[in-house]
Design a protein that fits this description.
Blueprint (H helix, E strand, L loop, with lengths): L2 E5 L2 E4 L4 E8 L7 E7 L5 E7 L6 E2 L7 E6 L4 E6 L8 E8 L5 E3 L3 E6 L1
């Protein structure tokens, strides 16, 4: 059974930092492209960052320079380090796993709320 479980969300003041974690099971983690997405209230889910197996990272323009994705293949875990958080970063953050040629998987999401 595949599970992606996010943690680390919460309430933070603007300008603050959070680190999200996504622990996985049931997938060959090292072969998956891991990513983070966000869904703000009333908005579509949007891409934030991804890191494919073997390294290299891609970021959305809105988080470039503020967010950093990293992965620990030994722990089957991907992280999203978020700095200089803004009000517009509020939303539910989802972890995503994509194995080439296979179906993808989503976590259940973790809420991040940025207050002024």
């Amino acid at each position: 059974q595949v599970q992606l479980r996010e943690s680390g969300g919460g309430l933070v003041q603007a300008g603050g930092s959070l680190r999200l974690s996504c622990t996985t099971s049931g997938i060959i983690f090292a072969m998956n492209t891991m990513g983070w997405y966000r869904q703000a209230p009333g908005e579509d889910r949007e891409f934030l960052a991804s890191e494919p197996a073997g390294g290299g990272t891609v970021y959305a323009e809105s988080v470039l320079g503020r967010f950093t994705i990293s992965r620990d293949d030994a722990k089957n875990t991907v992280y999203l380090h978020m700095n200089d958080l803004k009000l517009e970063d509020t939303g539910v953050y989802y972890c995503h796993a994509q194995h080439p040629g296979r179906r993808d998987y989503w976590g259940q999401g973790t809420q991040v709320t940025v207050s002024s």
